Amino acid sequence: MALPRGLPDGPHLDDDAVWRMDEDPATVLGSLQQQYGDIFTVHRSGAAPRVVLTSDSHIRELIKRDPDLYACGTSQFAQLVGRQSVNMLSGEPHRRMRQLLLPPLHGHALAGRVPRIRGIMREEFDRLRGADPVPLLQFTSEIALRVTASVLFSPMSAAQVRELCAPLMEIIEGIHQHRSVPPADRSAESVTSAREAFARQRARLDENLSAQVAAHRSNPDSDPASLLGQLLSAPVALTDQQILDQLATMLVAGHLTTASGLAMAAYWMQRPGEHAAAAAAELDALADDHSAADLAALHHVTAFCDEVLRIGSVVPHSSGRRTAGPVRAFGYELPAGTELIVSLHLAHRRPEVYPDPEEFDPRRFVDSPPSATTFVPFGMGVRRCPGAALATLEMKIFLACLRRTPGLELIGADVPFRTVSFGSTLAPPTQIRLRRTV
Ligand code: HEM
Q: Which one of 103, 137, 264, 303 has the fewest CB atoms closer than 10 angstroms to its CB?
């Protein structure tokens, strides 16, 4: 069948409009969908045309075509995670790298880590006692970083993780500051100084990670089951740079995403109303020393977490897939060099799949488990998030700790739900703070 040649319709955006889209992808892509339909192209100056996909039939087709579609990533992201990062690789090298990274992140490997993860969270909730209220996102970010580090490396204290990741935190802060200013208002000096600061901190992060690699190699008590242990015992030895890039990727990808997810879960758990009652009852009946199997059996909590991730779409869109040559797909003959993304936010708001999509209602997942083409908080196909099992496990343990910690109060959370851009993720409003009164 003859298909229209070329790209679907869509707007040409200048730098400021692209900035506004990145700052508020939910609103901007939503209005573009209303204007252009379920598939549209965003043209940006100096970048590949970006085709935005939004429906389950698009997702089904993308999953089928994923391996032969693309080269992935943008140069800006490459600087952060490194050119050898799994997120930057394509084809066979990508598949091989994922094979190395996945085993320590599988559910059964994580089951043994539940006591350690719970211990980290309890320590963090204990540190709230007598302290001033802390921004909720700062609190969940500290937890997410420590938990990710506990899977990557041998056990470390909070202070060691903080020191290791200090350059990463400075990079993230720098990116926030830089992105808070519209491109037209940025001076040439501010752009140069942001670039230089980024390069300095990125080199420091590599130094810190190299020290971890050296320590792991020289210490006979190092954890062989940690992700670093697995990378070091790869059947075909990896170069040091390959190892550093995977570690940086995991810290970046596993950190802000999970921090936002935990913060959203806390928001919805503490909101007045009946929506959280069934999940709360399950959490309250859980043993203090619960296992991964106990957590997996909590149907209402699972549905609650799924609904948190659906309505919040922590990661608003998938990684880009770049067509390697002309491709007949999604009803078009797309040219080579087209970037394809799935708007996870819009996919989670299709009223024919999710009636009243703006309503938080975990019951929609209780009797009908989510489908891989309509529920996509972790993406899909060959690039589906390798940290999905860890992130959901963390959410459940976090909620159990939240319910068990007396005297917790969320300040500034009595506002209707909306998301704000937080790095490349969406988070609940950043002014929400957490206080512990006893
Ligand atoms: C709530 C938490 C998280 C969410 C919502 C999330 C979501 C996502 C999404 C949407 C993608 C892109 C998938 C695609 O393009 O199809 C992705 C990729 C990725 N995520 Fe996550 N993620 C989370 C936590 C984590 C954690 C905890 C880790 C690791 C410790 C992690 C590691 C990665 C990596 C390495 C990739 C790149 C995979 C590839 O390119 O093959 N993520 N994630």
A: 103
* Ligand 1 binding residues, C-beta < 6 A: 86-87, 98, 148, 249-250, 253-254, 257-258, 261, 314-315, 318-319, 377-380, 383-387, 390-391
Neighbours of 183 (CB within 10 A): 14
Q: What is the mean pLDDT of the chain?
A: 93
Residue 365 lies in a domain: yes
Tally the domains of the chain. Answer: 1
Which residue has its alpha carbon closest to ligand 1 atom 30? 254
Q: What is the pTM of this model?
A: 0.95
Q: How confident is the model at residue 66 (pLDDT cuts 50, 70, 90)?
A: confident
CATH code for position 229: 1.10.630.10
Å from CA of 285 to ligand 1 middle: 31
* Polymer length in residues for the chain: 438
pLDDT tens for 161-208 read 999 999 999 998 898 888 888 888 999 999 899 999 999 999 999 999
Residue 7 domain-assigned (yes or no): no
Beta bridge partners of 329: 332
Q: Which stretch, 82-96, 399-413, 420-434, has highest mean pLDDT?
A: 399-413
Model confidence pLDDT, tens digit, residues 351-369: 999 999 999 999 999 988 8
Mutate to test the pocket of ligand 1, among 63, 83, 257, 342 (most ligand atoms within 8 A of CB): 257
Q: Which residue among 305, 315, 385 is best mutated to probe the pocket of ligand 1, counting the most ligand atoms within 8 A of its Cβ?
A: 385
Q: Which domain holds residue 60?
A: 12-436
For 133-170, how does the pLDDT look when each residue is reduced to its tens digit (9 = 90+)?
999 999 999 999 999 999 999 999 999 999 999 999 99
Asked whether residue 4 is assigned to any structural domain, the reply reads no
Question: Per the domain annotation, does 391 fall within a domain?
Answer: yes
